[in-house]
Amino acid sequence: MSAPKDKDFGTPARDGDSVTLVIDGQELRVARGTSVMAAAMRAGFQIPKLCATDSLEAFGSCRLCLVEIEGRRGAPASCTTLVEEGMVVRTQTPRLAQLRRGVMELYISDHPLDCLTCSANGDCELQDMAGAVGLREVRYGQEGARHRTVAPDESNPYFTFDSSKCIVCSRCVRACEDVQGTFALTIDGRGLASMVATGGADFLQSECVSCGACVQACPTATLNEKSVIDMGAPTRAIETTCAYCGVGCGFRAELQGDKVVRMVPSREGKANEGHSCVKGRFAWGYATHKDRITRPMIREAITDPWREVAWEEAFAFAAQRFRDIQARHGREAIGGITSSRCTNEETFLVQKLIRAGFGNNNVDTCARVCHSPTGYGLKTAFGTSAGTQDFRSVAQADVIMVIGANPTDAHPVFAARMKKRLRQGAKLIVVDPRRIDLVRAPHIEAAHHLALRPGSNVALINALAHVIVTEGLVNEAFVRERCDLQDFEIWARFVALEQNAPEAVEAICGAPAGEIRAAARLYAAGGNAAIYYGLGVTEHSQGSTMVMGMANLAMATGNLGRPGVGVNPLRGQNNVQGACDMGSFPHEFSGYRHVSDEATRDMFEAMWGVPLSREPGLRIPNMLDEAVEGRFKGLYVQGEDIAQSDPDTQHVTQALRNMDCVIVQDLFLNETAKYAHVFFPGSSFLEKDGTFTNAERRISRVRKAMAPLAGLADWEATLGFARALGCDFDYAHPAQIMDEIAALTPTFAGVSYARLDELGSVQWPCNAQAPQGTPIMHVDRFVRGKGKFMVTEYVASDERTSARFPLILTTGRILSQYNVGVQTQRTANNIWHPEDVLEIHPFDAEQRGLREGDLVALQSRAGEVSLRAHLSERMQPGVVYTTFHHARTGANVVTTDHSDWATNCPEYKVTAVQAQRTNRWSDWQEEERRGADLMRIIAGRADAAE
Amino acid sequence: MKIDKLVRMANQIAAFFASQPEREREAGVAEHVRNFWTPAMRRDIYAHLDAGAPGLDPLAARALAALRDTDSAREAG
Q1: Is residue A769 within 8 angstroms of chain B, CB to CB?
Q2: Which string of DSSP letters, residue by residue, matches A597-627?
Q3: Do the bridges between strand A250-256 and strand A236-241 make them parallel or antiparallel, or are there none, so unpaired?
């Protein structure tokens, strides 16, 4: 018995006016453009099919779905025949049955008959169709074993390709092209010699990005998950939400009992509509990895071994330490960090604990170091701290401007949508120092790549605005109706200054003036224009200014308030948006309301029954600074690894060492846990109920598929800690926490688990005014009323190159790894990215005598690490790049404490460095390797210090 | 926090608001600090003002002086 599967209607659904037809005697009304197959399937009739699946356009190759249509000769394929008014269709006749059996005979004659031992037994469409057409004999024998001499391709760590079982339906090839847009597969050969082939020697060496679309599309065991081959078919399924990036894909966790067999992207998932990437689809093994810590632990000092204890003892120990700190150092001497990897409910609970239990507002979240400028900038311009569109909106964009984002690596499922639109003809502008993959991909080429120098974003956005204002490209009607006119006029006068002309800015940003002018004209006059941006915008000393600059551009051109346009942050972690929504910032409650707002505070005080502080609390970097100074002594960190992810590692670890009590709640003993006194074992997304909110403000359910390995879900551990501190928090289920969020947060007022079960997911605001949620924001008016233009003068970063540090380092992510790597590095994803490397332009490499693979000492004013060189013309001369995924590299040893003026978001994207050949690891790396593992020893266990 | 860090933060804020319309500059800096800095951070920078405000941008210094008056009035009242 296999897990129940989604119904497959054979071809994609269509919108539009309806036509009436008759199928097997039943009158139906369906949308024009629907295939006969889909019309029949939706009405409950079954038509055999092999090459059709409703995630792909019809192909018409298998000839199994033949039907009879009155007035037409022959038996057309129902997948490629569209419904027409008055059409009369028969799907089941003796002639059709004979034709279908004949087709199946041919397929089966070239297919191994090892069904009983096949990994797809019970989950094979070929097997199902043989049964459906009543195949009883194969007159041609089973000698057509043309592919059986080819050994299965086992190169991909997650799936096999066994061509002997391939029926050459091309579903995998079409999925790779149409859904993922990678074009890694093709059909090689002719006739019976036809075979699916990759461009490389095998899957691993090909262009394949392991998104799983081909595996999903395969109707046989040809492309099959290794976990299914090992374990057998799953027997039950639970709908949940991916815990990796901010796309927030819907998934079906398919299980045997409480063991996950595979994660299958949900076709009902509105963020992904059945697509996935290598992380969500395959890299879930970390959830049960042997490194998981499943018992609470405590220790007196960070130099002591950990001692495993019962939950209650850990709660009591932690609570006593925190109470002692406050008694000695004051109420403000402790704080906490909520997790963008945990659920909304867990995040809300942690900030409640800090505000109501600790009695201060020293709560922050990892958005501090990624998208806090988004919150500041968009709230200033539009009135709310979130992106304007749903993901589906990109399908109506005519011009797509990608700024400081690399969606094919960091948001791959959304990138697949974007690439599809680009293949349909939308124009692309890429603003990025690096030549990211989108600049030139199969059937995609950016109209303009503005390869600016890191740190010059604001100069560039002002130059784009200059062209729009001085060349008469402003959408005056939109500005007059929707925006504050006085602010607009001030802004327009500013950007029109000669200092902002492309010809003046060219010297600052390095992008040619002509390209800037052409890009501005395209953005302003090319139809629906949408901005998508990432951390290349926010992680700068002018991150917030740049967000406002982009908002200015969208308002000036009227590109807001309808599908196909907008200003859209691509959020990094799965619940960054949610963590921000839930009141994780030290200055605001849930729903982005400042703590000094009396009415809001009154409401929270009434609900929570305690007085709350009206003063903003410490941000993460401020907490660390205060710890170094000895004024901040205790930190509760849920699901965050600041010792690896935050800038200037040595400053972070000095701060952590200075604290009297650090509590880490995580799945694994991460880098921060080296400096912790209490460890609360965390629970993965498979072990709890809750919700995540993705980058399009979509709130989706996370559903428990297995019991928490440590006995408690994260929300339950926070609850236990809170009670040990004397808080009377009382929740039996996360649904009750969501009810409290809804009662306290106007934009969530209509959200409940019942509503989410009913709708599948919903985009906030969801309340009485918008009970079905809000896919597009600011449709008739901005949340703040009139849109606010802000003057965005370019201010150069204080981080400057010099003779000693002549290069600019910028950091980022890669497809196969996720953030600090604690999850993905406990999966087979390491095969694609086993270490962080330094990408350097061949010109810079040659000047330094560097060759591919050389060990390089990367030095900045903050520190030094060594890593291998990778020569790449994706870089511009003078700029180098690395990722921060591997703790042993320690990329953030090099980054500095420069930060955004408004939010203190670190300036990860601009660090002045030198790179030179070396034959040794850096002192920091050697020290880490020698001593740090000692801080992770667990008494009585020999294997803990990895 | 180290005073030079607070000074750097205040100067960055002033650098942004320096390009805003004249009437919004001081108020903008003051409101930003009021909204996002803890009372301890504000006290530390006020003490720096009293010490002659070395290194502090003039716009930041004026805005912080005004904010100190507001804070004092609030505490008194």
Answers
A1: no
A2: -HHHHHHHHHHHTS----S----HHHHHHHH
A3: antiparallel
Which chain A residues in 605-634 lie under 8 Å from chain B, judged by CB atoms? 615-619, 622, 625-626, 629, 631
Q: In what order do the strands lie in the sheet with A259-265?
A: A236-241, A250-256, A259-265
Please tell me which of the candidates A545, A625, A798 has its beta carbon nearest to residue B2. A625
Residue A493 forms contact with B (CB below 8 Å): no
Quick one: pLDDT at residue A56?
A: 95
Q: Does B17 touch chain A (CB under 8 A)?
A: no
Show the DSSP H helices in A633-683 as ranges.
642-645, 649-658
A137: three-class secondary structure by DSSP: coil
pLDDT band at A176 (very low <50, low <70, confident <90, very high): very high
Residue A298 in contact with residue A306, Cβ under 8 Å?
A: yes
What average pLDDT does this structure show over A325-331? 97
- How far is it, in rounded angstroms, from Cα A357 to Cα A360? 8
Residue A300 to residue A320: CA distance in whole angstroms: 12
* Residue A765 preceded by cis peptide, ω within 30: yes
Give A9's DSSP letter: -
Q: Which residue spans within A14-53 are E strands per DSSP?
A: 18-23, 26-31
8 A C-beta contact, residue A83 and residue A34: yes
- Cα–Cα distances in Å, from A342 out to A9, A225, A244, A287, A347? 35, 28, 11, 14, 7
Distance between A343 CA and the closest CA of chain B, angstroms: 26
In the numeric block, the tokens 């966790």 are attached to A253
The predicted structure's pLDDT at residue A946: 42
Chain A residue closest to B14 (CA)?
A901
Q: Write the CB contacts of A310 (distance below 8 Å, at least 6 apart in sequence).
A: A296
- The amino acid sitting at A387 is G
Give the distance from residue A605's alpha carbon to the nearest chain B alpha carbon, in angstroms: 20
B13, B16, B38 ranked by CB distance to A618: nearest: B38
Q: Do B40 and A902 touch (CB under 8 A)?
A: no
Q: Rounded to whole angstroms, how far apart are CA atoms B64 and B25?
A: 12
- Considering only CB atoms, B40 lies closest to which of A332, A587, A619, namely A332
A587–B36 CB contact, under 8 Å: yes
Interface of B with A in 34-63 (CB under 8 A): 35-41
* pLDDT for residue A908: 95
Cα–Cα distance list, A605 to A164, A608, A732 (Å): 67, 5, 22
Give the angle subtended at the CA of A534 by the CAs of A537 and A556, to the nearest 5°.
Answer: 65
As a whole number of Å, the CA-based R_g of chain A is 29
How far apart are the C-alpha atoms of A792 and A549, rounded to whole Å?
A: 6
* B chain contacts of residue A332, beta-carbon cutoff 8 Å: 38, 40
Instruction: Tell me how many degrees the CA angle B55-B49-B24 measures, rounded to the nearest 5.
Output: 85
- Tell whether B65 lies on the interface with A, counting CB pairs under 8 A: no
HSE (side-chain half, CA atoms, 13 Å) at A660: 21
List the single residue in B2, B5, B38 with the smallest CB-CB distance to A616: B38
Q: Can you give the pLDDT at residue A704?
A: 97
Residues of chain A in contact with residue B8, where contact means CB-CB under 8 angstroms, are 798
CB atoms within 10 A of CB A779: 12
Handedness of CA A700, A704, A708, A709 (dihedral sign): negative
Can you tell me the ipTM of this complex? 0.97
**From A521-530, A739-748, A929-938, the region with the lowest mean pLDDT:** A929-938
Cα–Cα distance, A819 to A829 (Å, whole number): 13
Among A815, A694, A884, smallest CA distance to A408 is for A815
**A586, A625, A792: residue with CB nearest B1:** A625
Encoded tokens for A492: 């327009």
